[in-house]
Write a structure and sequence with these properties.
The complex is a heterodimer. By secondary structure, chain A is an alpha/beta fold. Chain A contains 27 helices and 39 strands. In chain B, a hairpin with a 2-residue loop joins strand 8 and strand 9. The chains are: A alpha/beta, B mainly beta.
């Protein structure tokens, strides 16, 4: 035993194995152990709960929980891609498949589970997959993108099966789900809830086959999967089959070395997670406690904590009752099941809300004495989940009117009940076992944002379902502490951007001065002025360089170009959909050459010309306008570009004319001012070459029309857009986008991109659908009319400026001299000019700033 | 056109002979905006916070970006004091003192200004 440290061997680097290593490290006694972790997969631990996000993030990085570097820093040895082959309990030694031999003092088995594949004919054919690891998903993604793949079948209609179905659907496949029991999600949801879930899923175009199972996998001449034959005789053609019919504990090593197993598989453990060998522990999905295994992450995490306590001599923690509550968004539909969901306790009462119109089902199970909530099921709207689960766990006394917990809010009345009703012991985050008291303490300690709370309590960092509850708790606690939750735009307006937008529309306010006089104070600032300029432009679409609006504009809008670090500007003409003629290319080249501009292709399929001085801008634009170009609004918080692939006009895979649509869409919304910049793209087929799912609104062609995706984002926090509507014709598509954009403009915060807006929109995508498809708020016609006004009043801002001598007169560097800015200097690089760095023109700068500069240069000299 | 003016009231006795230079008409500065003027080889931001003929003059050099851009910033106030925000990294500067409101260790040089017959004149130290 080296330096008296115990050799601790952890087999398995999944979520639970990783949690164990983390907890041991933060127990303060990690240094007493020499820890080696063996992982079967080639990747370090990642977030398997959010596995489906793999297809959104594009790689495994976004899901990563651990890395070899992190482990190395913590002094933990991590061996990946090498499963354990045998355990010699006598010698306390293991051997890996690659031949590595390791001795241990204590062994922790966290081997997880593997997908169950029913023993049917053809199950190993190419084209058959399971849904468990990132490698599985990579293989599914690759198979789905092959030209012949168009139909996918998922065997299993449980929680994981529906996740897999969602993935297949997002990959553009016609998707079928096959479930042996008479309903979807039989373990979590009752018949009524399942019926509503099924209807909502079918509405998304996913075919559901229940009460039947796969008898064999049909194969083609090459032996590849070609379909599924059902036990009832029916057949389904499918080139891709995903088995998701449950999981089986990974207990083979334990079995081989003679550890006692549970009655239904899994390694039997006691309340301290000890196996039949006192030096071996088992945690997570591979462990069997109380006669069963647990396929959720929360029990696994508790087991990890229990073993850390056992090893470090911490408080004698034991396994307690596991909360098997689940909340998921499956195919965009909220599904939650918690506590005694089916009302199994003697004398329990149930209370149901069935809304077949909205597709919402809620069932609460109440104790015989009607004093406590025992459990429930939520389908279609799980917004109350966090609070309801906390009520079950804390055994809080129910309010008199139980129906208030699930009834939709009536006008003005707050929905449900407040977080105040929960006792301090109520668990807020089940995954990480964080109670309300801990969170309140953190808030009192200065964590005044949800992000900060996550950081210091770990609440909300696993499945994320309690994050809304964290937000509510934060608001309630801050309010109690007298800390005002401030949504003011800035010191000049005691209200939010949304409020200002409403005021501007309601009172027909046309200028900043009128707005600040009636609803604000002072002269404004760089926060509120551009925000109000944007609101006024979104509402009334008057020229932004009109005299009364001029002081509101950021320098980019004021000079209709993008300022660069040396004070010069860049010029980006509109190239709708990236379609440009050879003549236009020649013109751009000629103009760039004439004015000595640096040129570069932008990420948005346009051409950027950089290095223009203020006084050059009108001359450059005069030539651009003469050549048929118009403003690209690259300088504005406005629609930038609608990117496109060449579509079926040229591409052999294309199914629609993506360029044509992109040109029409871009021309419709060009110049639209919004809370932040807007990007869009149109792809001509499911291959998605235009990357539409990374845009605020993206459109992907289908055989039958267009699929619309909303709320995507590239940039600093990339996020995939969510599928909003499918197979739309162009008219419906445009109408839907009209409504979406105007609703976003109405309700977003300043500088809030659609992705963040949608993330924060209460009710999320489902609510958005209610507003802009079902017209729940009765504002659809208004939104369309507002957009029609903007579209109808479009004018090219540069053409407008060039026709107005007063506006043109402002494009000069000096009010009293035609001279250019003498500080601007370029140096050649790769055959083009680039701005000199300050250190490259220090002498020039020193001379221009003069002797007074010392005052001003303390900062930059530092 | 040069007159004597005591510009530092805190240091009585220190009288500096100023060289008053004509920059532009007040009307050349849109209310609520700034413009840059080139005077004696110096780039000076002339800022007119409102419709009134009040004009402030300060260096057009932004020490944070080392570009001459201050005049192209957004004019406003913080707690009632008139200021301008640099268009590059958005630091705000007090129009009267030149002091950077976001970093007190930085101050822009300011210049005396007077308006005569609708013309803006800036007092340059010789």
């Amino acid at each position: 035993m080296a330096q008296g440290r115990k050799r601790l061997l952890v087999v398995g680097n999944g979520m639970v194995g990783h949690r164990f290593v983390e907890s041991l490290g933060s127990s303060g006694q990690g240094q007493d152990f020499e820890v080696t972790v063996l992982g079967e997969e080639s990747r370090a631990a990642y977030d398997r709960v959010n596995l489906s996000k793999f297809f959104e993030g594009g790689d495994g990085e976004t899901l990563a929980l651990a890395s070899p570097e992190k482990y190395a820093r913590a002094g933990v040895r991590l061996v990946l891609g090498d499963p354990v082959a045998s355990v010699d309990r006598q010698a306390k030694r293991i051997q890996t498949r690659a031949g590595l031999v390791l001795d241990y003092d204590q062994l922790v088995l966290a081997t997880g589970s593997s997908p169950f594949v029913p023993p049917i004919e053809g199950r190993d054919a190419p084209g058959c997959f399971v849904y468990r690891t990132i490698e599985d998903l990579e293989a599914i993604g690759a198979a789905a993108s092959s030209a012949s793949a168009n139909v996918g079948a998922v065997i299993g209609g449980g929680l994981l099966g529906l996740e897999a179905a969602n993935a297949l659907r997002n990959l553009g496949l016609e998707t079928h789900v096959v479930e042996i029991s008479p309903r979807l999600m039989p373990v979590q949801v009752d018949e009524m809830g399942s019926a509503i879930l099924r209807r909502r899923i079918e509405a998304l175009g996913v075919a559901v086959h229940v009460g039947t199972s796969a008898k064999r996998i049909l194969t083609d001449d090459d032996g590849r999967a070609a379909g599924v034959q059902f036990t009832d005789g029916g057949e389904l053609r499918a080139s891709l089959v995903v088995f998701s019919a449950g999981i089986r504990p990974h207990d083979e090593i334990a079995r081989a070395c003679g550890l006692t197993l549970g009655p239904r598989g899994g390694i039997e453990v006691d309340a301290r997670c000890r196996t039949s060998d006192p030096d071996i522990f088992a945690i997570g999905e591979c462990a069997s406690w109380d006669g069963r295994t647990y396929g959720l992450v929360a029990p696994g995490y508790q087991m990890a904590e229990v073993v850390v306590a056992a090893l470090t001599g911490g408080a004698a923690r034991q396994l307690g009752h596991f909360d098997m509550s689940t909340k998921l968004k499956l195919l965009g539909v909220d599904v939650a099941s918690f506590g005694d969901a089916f009302g199994l306790e003697a004398g329990a009462h149930t209370l149901c809300l069935i809304d077949n119109v909205a597709g919402v089902y809620k069932q609460l199970v109440v104790s015989a004495d009607k004093a406590r909530l025992l459990g429930g099921i939520l389908v279609g709207d799980a917004s109350a989940y966090g609070q309801l689960v906390a009520m079950v766990q804390s055994k809080a006394t129910l309010p008199m009117k139980v129906e208030g917990l699930i009834a939709p809010p009536s006008d003005g009345a707050p929905a449900g009940f407040g977080v105040d009703a929960l006792p301090a012991t109520a668990t807020i985050c089940s995954c990480n076992n964080v109670d309300k008291g801990t969170i309140c303490q953190a808030i009192a300690g200065g964590a005044h944002a949800v992000g900060a709370l996550k950081g210091c309590t770990k609440a909300g960092t696993s499945c994320g379902s309690c994050v809304p509850l964290l937000g509510d708790l934060l608001k309630a606690e801050l309010k109690r502490a007298g800390v005002a939750v401030n949504h003011d735009l800035c010191e000049h307006f005691p209200c939010s951007r949304q409020d200002l937008y409403q005021l501007v529309r309601l009172h027909q306010i046309k200028t900043f001065d009128a707005l600040v006089e009636r609803h604000g104070r002072g002269r404004g600032c760089e926060i509120c002025k551009p925000a109000v300029a944007s609101i006024l432009a979104s509402a009334w679409n008057e020229p932004i360089l009109a005299r009364k609006h001029l002081p509101l504009q950021d320098t980019n809008d004021r000079f209709l170009a993008n300022i660069q670090r040396d004070g010069t500007y860049s010029v980006i003409p509109r190239v709708a959909a990236g379609e440009i003629t050879p003549d236009q290319l020649v013109e751009i080249g000629r103009i760039a050459k004439r004015y000595g501009l640096y040129t570069k292709i932008t990420g948005a399929q346009r051409i950027d010309m950089l290095g223009a001085r203020v006084e050059q801008l009108p001359h450059i634009w005069r030539e651009l306008v003469d050549a048929g170009f118009e403003s690209g609004h690259a300088y504005g918080k406005a629609l930038r570009t609608v990117k496109s692939c060449v579509g079926d006009t040229w591409c052999r895979y294309g199914v629609q004319d993506s360029v044509g649509l992109a040109v029409r869409i871009e021309n419709r919304y060009k110049g639209l001012r919004s809370p932040h910049k807007l990007k869009s793209a149109v792809s001509g087929c499911a291959r998605e070459c235009a990357e539409a799912q990374g845009k605020d609104f993206g459109i992907i062609a289908t055989e039958k029309g267009w699929n619309l995706y909303l709320g995507g984002n590239g940039g600093m926090k990339p996020q995939h857009a969510q599928l909003f509507a499918t197979d739309l014709d162009e008219e419906t598509l445009v109408r839907t986008i009209d409504r979406f954009l105007m609703f976003y403009i109405r309700t977003a915060d300043r500088l809030q991109r659609t992705a963040t807006w949608l993330n924060n929109l209460e009710g999320g995508l489902a609510y958005l659908r209610e507003v802009i498809v079902d017209d729940k708020l009765g504002i659809a016609a208004e939104l369309e009319a507002e957009m029609a006004h903007i579209v109808g009043s479009y004018r090219c801002e540069w053409k407008d400026a060039l026709e107005d001598p007063q506006k043109l007169a402002r494009f000069r560097t000096f009010v009293n001299s035609p001279a250019p800015d003498p500080s601007v200097a370029f140096v050649p690089e790769r055959g083009q000019p680039r701005p000199a760095h300050p250190h490259e023109k220090r002498e020039l700068l020193d001379r221009l700033v003069g002797p007074e500069r010392d005052d001003g240069r303390e900062k930059s000299a530092a | 056109m040069s007159v004597a003016l005591q510009i530092e009231p805190a240091a009585p006795g220190l009288a500096v002979e100023l060289d008053w230079r004509d920059a532009c008409a007040v009307a050349d500065i849109p209310a609520g905006c700034g413009v840059a003027a080139l005077l004696c080889g110096r780039q000076i931001a002339l800022v007119r916070p409102g419709e009134a003929e009040t004009v402030f003059a300060l260096s057009n050099y932004d020490p944070f970006s080392e570009a001459f851009v201050i005049a192209r910033g957004i004019v406003g106030d913080r707690a009632g004091r008139p200021k301008i925000a640099s268009p590059i990294y958005k630091q705000s500067f007090d129009l009267e003192t030149g002091r950077c409101l976001d970093d007190p260790s930085v101050r822009l040089p300011v210049y005396p200004v007077r308006v005569r017959d609708g013309r803006v004149e800036v007092g340059m130290r010789p």
